Predict the structure.
Amino acid sequence: MTLLLGIETSCDETSAAIVEDGVRIHSNVVASQIELHAKYGGVFPEMASREHVLKIVPVIERALHDAQVAWPDVDAIAVTYGPGLAGSLLVGVNTAKGLALAKSLPLIGINHLEGHIYASWLMPDAMDSSPEFPLLCLIVSGGHSELILMRAHGEYEWLGATRDDAAGEAFDKVARLLGLGYPGGPAIQKAAEQGDAGSLKLPRAWLAGTYDFSFSGLKTAVLRIVTADGRRQTADESRSPISVMPSVADIAASFQESVVDVLVEKTRMAAEQFGVKQVLIGGGVAANKTLREQMRARLPVPVLIPPIALCTDNAAVIASAGYFHFANGERSGWDLDVVPGLRLVSN
C-alpha cells in the first residue's frame, strides 16, 4: 500500500487529500472560495492567494485526520505546480516543499491538467478495472478545453485545444451577460432547464480539419442578442431584430446546446479516427448534465465521467496522478517552481 498526500491550490480551491495506490480516496478536503469571489464575477487572484495562505495548513491537517493517517504513513507528497494563478500555485508548492523537506518525503510536481485526467482512476470501478488504453481525454474547465490522446501512463499526444475562450470561461462570461451570477456553469445549467434549446440559432465554430475549439464567436453572438443597439437580436447571419424578446432561459439553453454540440461532435470524431477504447472527460465543465448525457448517448465507445466532486479542482486527482509518477521512479527536485502557463503536451 502506497499513500500519497496531494495538495492543490491552482486557482481558488484549497485542497489536500490522502489517496492509496492512485485509486482509493481516504480523504479529500476542499475549502472553497466561491462566496468570496462571487461579488467580483470571477476569481480575484490576490485575494485567492491570501486565502490559500490562511487555509492550507488546516486543510492538510484535516485531510490527515479524516484519513486516520499520521505523517509516518505518508510515502510521498504530490503538488500542483501549474498551470494556474502564480500566487495561488506558490502557496501550494512552497508548502509541499517545506513539508517534504521536514518529513524527509519525496516531492512530485504534477500538472493540473493531468490531475483532471486521473479523476477517472478514482471512480469506484477503477479499483477493480482501470481505464483501458488508448484513451481519448477531453479536458474542459474554466481555463482549458483540450483533446488529448493518451496511449499509456505519461504518454500524451496533443490533438486540439481552444483558440480563444475555454468552455468554462465562455459559461462564466455568458452567465454574467445574462445576469445569472458566478460561477457560470451551474447558473447556465439551472436556467437552461426552463428554456428551449431550439429557440435560437446560435453559431458553432467547427474549424474544419482540426480538433480545435473556439467559443468567442458564440459569446459575441449572445452579447448581440442581449445588448446590440439597445435591443435583442438573433445570432444568425441576417441578425434581424427579434419581434419577441427571447427569455434568459431560452438564451441559456441555446448557448449550452451550442457548446455541448461542438464538444461532443469533436470528441466523437477523434474517438473514431484514433480507434480509442474509451473516452474520459475531466474538468469543471464535465459536471454539466447535458454534456454528460450527450457524451454517453452519441459516442461509439464507453465514456468515463467522474463524480461531480472530482470534476472541480481537488487534491485527490493530484495525488492519483502523483502515484503513477512515483511508481515510475520520478521525483522532483528542491528547485521545483511554479509554471503558470504549463502545458501538458507541446503542440
Summary: The beta strands are 3-8, 13-20, 24-32, 76-82, 107-111, 135-140, 145-152, 155-161, 278-282, 303-304. The chain is about 40% helix and 20% strand. Residues 187 and 253 are 11 Å apart (CA to CA).
